[in-house]
Amino acid sequence: SKVSGPFQRESYETVLKTGKLLADFLLEPALKVDLEQFNKSRVKASSVNISEAVAAAEKVLSKRRQAPKKVFRVLPEENMNFYVAGRMSPPTKEHQEVLRAMDLGTILSEALVMDYNLAFMGSICTDAERVESRRMILEAQKALVDLAVLFVTGNPKNQEIVMAHLPALCKLMGPFRMPPLKPDFDPALKAELEASVAEPRTGMGTEFVLIECLRGNVRLCADAVPKEILEQIGSFLELDEDPSTSQISDFFLLLCEPEGPESVLPINQELVARLLLAPRLKNVARCIHSVFGIDPKAKPCSKPERIVELMCKVVSHDNVRTASMLQSAGVNMHRVLDALLLRAKQVKETAGHPGADTDADATRCDELLGQLLELLAHLMESLVNDPKLYGRKPFWAFVADECVAIVRDYVASHVTPNVFAGLPGALAPAYYTCRSALVLIKLVITNGRALGLVDLEAKHEGYFAELAPLCMEIHKYHGQASDSLLDFQAVACLKLVNNEVLMAHRLASANNLDKEEQLEEAPEVSGGEVDLTGHNERRSPQEFLALFCECVSTNPKLLNKMAARKFALVEIL
Question: Residue 225: which residues within 8 A CB-CB, separation 6 or more?
Fold first, then answer.
């Protein structure tokens, strides 16, 4: 700003150039150094010409810059700035640490404190210079915001440093602000400024620095985000006419589950639920009403799967409070089931067109159907189930046909001995869709039997019979991978449809384990020979308890007798 002298254009251009170089540095793969060769070269260091060494390094780096790069995409298209666009390789952690040692986090935070409307606050600039000053500061700060995104992505220490300057980030969040104008300000320049702030999606993109700071960082999500920031981000989401297309919704997803389903934060779930269901967020409410048919006149949103995903994160892990809040707002099990059946019908109709996927492929790949399936499973696990739900024949038909098909396809596509090295990873969508299908099957069969709906179960007996070998395959491989999330549901379904198969597998596994133990720890008998007769077979306490629980849980008479003597049973255990 021209306050005590002319514009510092050289500084402005240097900031842009330096920002670009640092971004390139963060995206470059780390150099691999041969330590032995490096130590040898240190002896000759005194004879090395520094300028020649720099020129040689620049030559190597220039070749690497010319090589084709993967595309790096952090910000959505409407917030893409000049050098982040078109790339997708993640930042190099070693380079992030180098820049952290150079205090880049603090430097960025200090640079972002400057108000881009500074020239309109009493400077000696002309109207054109004020507009030019604002443009220059905005360009420089946009470059630094993009650099901040690269600096914190996937790096917890850098995330902590930048989040310490949260107040400065918050001032730059949201759409660009109109500067204070004098009455005699140039009308043409005023129109130019008004056009720059008219679109609600245009802004600095600082929200995405905050989102990347929270991604994968459970501590920051739990402790570092005050309620005021939550309200502020909610108001930015409401500015979008169609909130389902806004990338800002990632903020709410991460608050609920910063690092996957095992990192769920119930307090944040409740805060997010209250905010999203608040009457003042009318555009968000319209999206919810259109997805679940609460208001037939509501304008449909472009990405309903995004809205359903938000609802899933809010109620996951049996959060009864948030599930009750959704139900009070009209998102109950019947409406979710209606939306699910409608989507399944649409998917089948689309699959019937020439060149489209088959029914099974389309059902598996449809993101909205998978999210609705997961939401219904969460609600049914959390809330008291309505008996009327189980009396609906289309529900039984969907569970028997589509849900079993989802499990069948998951087993055919993903259950192999080498798949589970990195669970859930790339399998996440198919993995959670399969889990939700198993939950629905389990609940429908269990509660259907309790309600005496044996005829409906018998009508679909063929589908459920097919489930036994599928669940057995899931149990084998997911059990080996110590993955209880899906294995638990598969075992529960297997007990319902064919418990003999499960018992036979467990007895065979126990026998194999016993034989291995006998071979490893076989006692010696007189004469130095090894006793392999099996007379010394033994079981661990854990195995005895597992077999005991298995016998009890499959014998109704025992269960009834134990119910009357539970205190004695606890004493025995």
Answer: 214, 255
